[in-house]
Amino acid sequence: QVQLVESGGGSAQAGGSLRLSCKASGYTYSRLCVGWFRQGQGKEREGVASIFTGGGYTAYSDSVKGRFTISQDYGKNTVILQMSSLKPEDTAMYYCAARSPPCTPTMREDGYNNWGQGTQVTVSS
Questions:
Q1: Distance CA 98, CA 100 (A)
Q2: Which residues, other chains included, contact 121 with Cβ-Cβ below 8 Å and sequence gap of 6+?
Q3: Which of 18, 21, 80, 109 is most buried, judged by most C-beta within 10 A?
Q4: SS3 label, residue 75
Q5: CB contact at 8 A, 6 and 95
Q6: What is the chain's mean pLDDT, rounded?
Q7: Could you report the per-residue pLDDT of 32-77, keeping only the tens digit for each?
């Protein structure tokens, strides 16, 4: 079972930046599929970015492409979501999710079986 802890949420002005971290522990394999999801108030949860750690594969939803970057900190078992050019519509609870191999770094919720508790991001205009 993979344990995930998100951090780095908070408030920002439109056009600003925030950096979210997802620290993983408790897994056997050296590689994971990790996804970042978000859920705004009254909205369905959506995938925004995914990565296969160590493999260089990344993917983004159209809503964040060019503004968000997913990466990993190899030494800290941490996946980073760097968010720039923030918009008020980015306001949401952000979750990271993971699955040990075999896995596909998808932005579908059913691709993951381990979830963090979430971290709130609020962007004001």
A1: 7
A2: 9, 10, 12, 18, 20, 38, 83, 86, 90, 91, 92, 93, 94
A3: 18
A4: helix
A5: yes
A6: 94
A7: 999 999 999 999 999 999 999 977 799 999 999 999 999 998 777 8
The rounded Cα 50 to chain-centroid distance in angstroms is: 7
User: What does the pLDDT read at residue 30?
Assistant: 75
Nearest Cα residue to 7 out of 122, 123, 124, 118: 118
- Extract long-range pairs of 87-90: CB within 8 Å, 24+ residues apart: 87/14, 87/123, 88/14, 88/123, 88/124, 88/125, 89/40, 89/63, 89/123, 90/38, 90/64, 90/121, 90/123
Which residue reads 């995914």 in tokens?
Answer: 50
